[in-house]
Write a structure and sequence with these properties.
It holds the Pfam family Amidohydro_2. InterPro entries: Amidohydro-rel (IPR006680), Aro_Compnd_Degr_Hydrolases (IPR052358), GLI/LigI (IPR047874), Metal_Hydrolase (IPR032466). It is globular and about 45 Å long. It is built from eleven helices and eight strands. With 290 residues, the protein is an alpha/beta fold.
Length: 290
C-alpha cells in the first residue's frame, strides 16, 4: 500500500435517508485482496485491500440491494477481481470492465455471461497511460452488439476536445462524476454549461452524479457540489445514476463517511419520484434489462 494511501472508513454511520426498495449503488470498486488477485504491474497507485466481502457488507449496511462494480485502474486490464466479485454476488451485481482493442469476441461473451455490461475509458492522465482514440473506438464497436455501454472518466478541461469522440461512439455513454466540474465556478459558468449542452444534444449520454468528496473545495457536507448534481438530476431524471465510489481510491484530502454520502441523496433528488429513477429505475434499465 502506498504510504500516503487513505483507507476506507471501517465504521460509517447508518444513513438517516432510507433507500427505496431495489436501490443500486451504481459506482463502486474492489481492490484485490492482493494476495489472491494481484494488482497490475503498470498501475499508478497501490491501494489497501478492499475485496468483495467488504463491499457486500457495506451494501447491506447502507440498505442497497445491488451494486455496479467498476474495474479499478490498479488492476489494469486484468478483470479477475471484478469477475470474481460478480460471480459471488448471485446476480446482485453487474460490472464495467477494462479491456484493450485486441479483446476477443469470445472473451467479451464470457464476461457478459458473468455480469459485465460495459467498458470504461479513462482519460485522466495521472491514473492511466494515454490510449489512442482509435483503440477506444475499436473496443466500442466490439461491445456494441452485446448491448453494452461505455463509461468515460475525464477532467472538465478535456471536455471540448472529447465532444466529437463521445458523440461518435456507437453505444450509450455514461460520464463519471459529472465530468469533474470546477465547483468554484458555479452552475451558471460556461464550463458546466458545455457539459449540460452535451447531454441536451445527445440523448445517449448519461451521467453519474457522484463523488462530491472529490469535487468539493469546502469539504463535508459538500454544499458546494450539491447544486451541480441537483441541476443534472432536475434536467435529466431518466439518465442519471448514483454510487458511493467505495472504497474511494486516491483520496488525499479526507476519507468520506459512506452513510453521510447516502444522506446527500435527498438533497440532489428531493422528491420520491426522482429518487426512484436515480437509484432503481435507471440503473436497472441500464444493467439488468436482460
Amino acid at each position: 500500500m502506498d504510504p500516503d494511501w487513505l483507507c476506507f472508513d471501517p465504521d460509517p454511520k447508518k444513513p438517516d435517508f432510507r433507500l427505496p426498495a431495489g436501490a443500486v449503488d451504481a459506482h463502486c470498486h474492489v481492490f484485490g485482496p492482493a494476495a489472491q488477485l494481484s494488482f497490475a504491474p503498470e498501475r499508478k497507485y497501490t491501494p489497501c485491500d478492499a475485496g468483495k466481502d467488504k463491499l457486500f457488507e457495506l451494501r447491506d449496511f447502507l440498505g442497497f440491494e445491488r451494486n455496479v462494480i467498476v474495474q479499478a485502474t490498479c488492476h489494469g486490464k486484468d478483470n479477475r477481481a471484478l469477475l470474481d466479485a460478480l460471480d459471488a454476488a448471485g446476480g446482485r451485481a453487474r460490472g464495467v470492465a477494462s479491456v484493450g482493442p485486441e479483446i476477443a469476441e469470445q472473451d467479451l461473451c464470457e464476461m457478459d455471461a458473468r455480469g459485465a455490461r460495459g467498458v470504461r475509458f479513462n482519460f485522466v492522465r495521472r491514473l492511466v497511460d494515454a490510449t489512442p482514440k482509435d483503440a477506444f473506438l475499436t473496443i466500442a464497436e466490439k461491445i456494441a452488439p452485446l448491448g453494452w455501454h461505455v463509461v468515460v472518466y475525464f477532467e472538465a478541461a478535456d471536455l471540448p476536445e472529447l465532444v466529437p469522440f463521445l458523440n461518435g461512439l456507437p453505444t450509450p455513454v455514461v460520464v463519471d462524476h459529472m465530468g469533474r466540474p470546477d465547483v468554484t465556478k458555479g452552475v451558471d459558468h460556461p464550463d458546466f454549461g458545455r457539459f449540460i449542452r452535451l447531454m441536451e444534444d445527445n440523448p445517449a449520454i448519461w451521467c453519474k452524479v457522484t463523488c462530491p468528496e472529490r469535487l468539493t473545495r469546502q469539504g463535508p457536507p459538500y454544499d458546494d457540489v450539491v447544486p451541480f448534481a441537483a441541476e443534472i438530476v432536475r434536467r435529466f431524471p431518466d439518465r442519471v445514476l448514483w454510487g458511493t465510489d467505495w472504497p474511494h481510491p486516491n483520496m488525499k484530502s479526507h476519507m468520506p463517511d459512506d452513510g453521510e454520502l447516502v444522506d446527500l441523496i435527498p438533497r440532489i433528488a428531493p422528491d420520491p419520484d426522482r429518487q426512484i429513477r436515480l437509484l432503481v429505475d435507471n440503473p436497472v434499465r441500464l444493467y439488468w434489462a436482460r
